[in-house]
Amino acid sequence: MDRVIRVRVLDKNGRSIPDATVSLFVNGAYVGKASSASGNAGTLYTFQIDDTAADLGLKAEYKGEDPQNVTLSQGTNEWDFSFNNVEVPMPRDKSFWEEHLPGLIGVPLLLISIVLAVIFGTPTGYQRQVFVATLAIAVAGVGSEIPGFLNVNLTLGQKLSVTAAGALAIFVLVFFFVPATNNP
Questions:
Q1: Which residues pair with 166 in a beta bridge?
Q2: In this predicted model, which residue has the larger pLDDT, 161 or 76?
Q3: Which residues are paired to 22 by β-bridges?
Q4: Domain map of the chain by residue range?
Q5: Would you say residue 180 has pLDDT above 60?
Q6: What is 3-82's CATH number, 2.40.50.140, 2.60.40.1120, 2.40.320.10, 3.30.465.10?
Q7: Close Cβ partners of 23 (under 8 Å, ≥ 6 residues apart)
Q8: What is the pLDDT of residue 183?
Q9: Is pTM, for the whole model, over 0.70?
Q10: What is the 3-state secondary structure (H, E, C) of the chain?
Q11: Half-sphere exposure (CA, 13 Å, Cβ side) for 48?
Q12: Residue 58: which of 84, 33, 90 has the closest Cα?
């Protein structure tokens, strides 16, 4: 029965390092090496040896770091190399613009709401409703950038109930809260 050796090359945080190379030595003689595909983090290097009694050595190399060597005992079939000077950056799932778009829209809308409040000192009912809706969207966008969780359960009369969470909860609070007017 063949001996299967599994090897990982890890950074200081225990994440797989892409572009590393692992060489295999059987009874002191170089047999071959395995390299991961470019940028392929999470690589598990696997070697299959038909001589189960052979002395096996492994060597891991990574971009300018000192190579690491190990000789495996007969019962050891898995090994993790750790390069403690290397840190693999975590890939971002979203770009900056995708992640912060609500806040980036909310800030200008908030500024527009403030300017409109100054320009229209006594707005009509329709204008006031548009201003409140714009303000609610703006504050919800800015609120989406603040970490935490907000849950709102709002009952309006006996037939209408609104439940919202997060930025939508902020919108509901602002939209349904009617600020005091300066009407005499």
A1: none
A2: 76
A3: 34, 60
A4: 3-82, 96-176
A5: no
A6: 2.60.40.1120
A7: 30, 32, 33, 58, 59, 60, 61
A8: 52
A9: no
A10: CCEEEEEEEECCCCCECCCCEEEEEECCEEEEEEECCCCCCCCCEEEEECCCCCCEEEEEECCCCCCEEEEECCCCCEEEEECCCCCCCCCCCCCHHHHHHHHHHHHHHHHHHHHHHHHCCCCCHHHHHHHHHHHHHHHHHHHCCCCCCCEEEEEECCCEEEEEECHHHHHHHHHHCCCCCCCC
A11: 2
A12: 33
Ramachandran angles phi, psi of 103, nearest 5°: -70, -40
The dihedral built from the CA positions of residue 4, 34, 65 and 88, taken in this order, carries a sign that is negative
User: Do residues 17 and 89 lie in contact, with contact meaning Cβ atoms separated by under 8 Å?
Assistant: no
What is the pLDDT of the chain when averaged over all its residues? 83
Confidence of residue 184 (pLDDT cuts 50, 70, 90): very low
- What is the Cα–Cα distance from 51 to 146, expressed in whole angstroms? 60
**Pairing label, strands 29-35, 21-26:** antiparallel
Which of 56, 55, 76, 59 lies closest to 9, judged by CA? Answer: 59
